[in-house]
Input
Amino acid sequence: MISCCFNTQEKPEKKAVTTKSSFRRLSFSDISNSTSSISPEDLSLSLVGSNLYVFTLPELKLATQSFSTSNFLGEGGFGPVFKGIIDDKVRPRIKAQPVAVKVLDLDGTQGHKEWLTEVIFLGQLRHPNLVKLIGYCCEDEHRLLVYEFMARGSLENHLFKRFIVSLPWPTRLKIAVGAAKGLAFLHETEKPVIYRDFKASNILLDSEYKAKLSDFGLAKDGPEGDETHVSTRVMGTQGYAAPEYIMTGHLTAKSDVYSFGVVLMELLTGRKSVDKTRPAKEQNLVEFARPYLKDARKLARIMDPTMEGQYSTKIAMKVASVAYQCLTQNPKSRPQMSDVVDALEPLQDLEDMNIEPFVYSAAMHELDDQESAKEHYHGHIHKLRSPKSAGFSDGLNRNSQRNHKGGK
Ligand SMILES: Nc1ncnc2c1ncn2[C@@H]1O[C@H](COP(=O)(O)OP(=O)(O)OP(=O)(O)O)[C@@H](O)[C@H]1O
Ligand SMILES: [Mg+2]
Output
């Protein structure tokens, strides 16, 4: 690969980048002091063990048919994204696979730093609920990222784009659980990571609607030692960022938990976190809808009407209760992401059991206690619009008392 135009304004003071014999994740700070001077060779050396391909620009042109508009997938702050095929025409003996190639917009607001952050974090972190970074390209001023192709695009498109069929309730639950697992992994990995940009557009879906987090350009290493938080410039996305982070710049894993609560509300309601087209008091989803989450009758008023008849009130209430706790003002009172996973994951199985509601109604007559029979019935079939809200145990409270591995 030809040598790269990293910011040549600054003195090229090469920092020794250790080659990893045993795998220990490099934190961004390990090399951030030298982001302007680290050579591509140093970078690929420092990421030995992460199995990233270093592509050339001509290879990625070939893969994407010269970044043709017919391969255009979308565009965000980093730049345009194109579908491509990596096969042995592109690179001999490589495993053939579809990819998404993200190209840094050289006139945009993001740049080398975001690109490098993505390569360093996502290059080293592997989990079924994180999008896999396959490789990168760094030639002259060009910066590209090559990811596994996520066939169903972003959650944002599915929730908010017109002409896309509404996501059914069980799929929303599956997406919530997958995304929660991705965040829990980041928070509990050996060197914890704060994701900082959790939102519907950064949750990508594979062909089976498995959720994976993408976009690590804003990710930060979590606090170390006795530190309680990381101090940063406030960045992120309006409507998703936690209030204390916006006010103080103090970043903790609990800021991600808040953002997760916002996405959970979007899944429940089908409303955007910020929607300027709605009446003034409904524009901010959390401000407007959080008070509706604790009461079944109120919740029914804000649930996405396209899911009518697909969910049980009881389970929707449990999900709403998780969202409510994630959105608590005091970050310390928010659950950890592992608690959220523990609370949401079992609901998927319970929801599956609801698929045959008439079996329940027949069995109901055999129950001795008529009251509990009614509760059972109302709890299972939302179409009946049961106003019942009480009586379920709160998975989060129960779980947060447990001592979770790696919890902070
Ligand atoms: N790995 C991928 N597989 C398939 N499509 C992708 C992939 N990565 C991105 N996309 C598509 O490209 C679009 C733009 O993604 P990108 O992450 O650059 O921007 P964004 O998330 O919409 O905005 P932001 O800059 O705020 O993150 C996504 O909405 C998605 O449709
Ligand atoms: Mg994104």
The pocket of adenosine-5'-triphosphate (ligand 1) is lined by residues 73-78, 81, 100, 102, 131, 147, 149-150, 153-154, 157, 201-202, 204, 214-215 (CB under 6 Å).
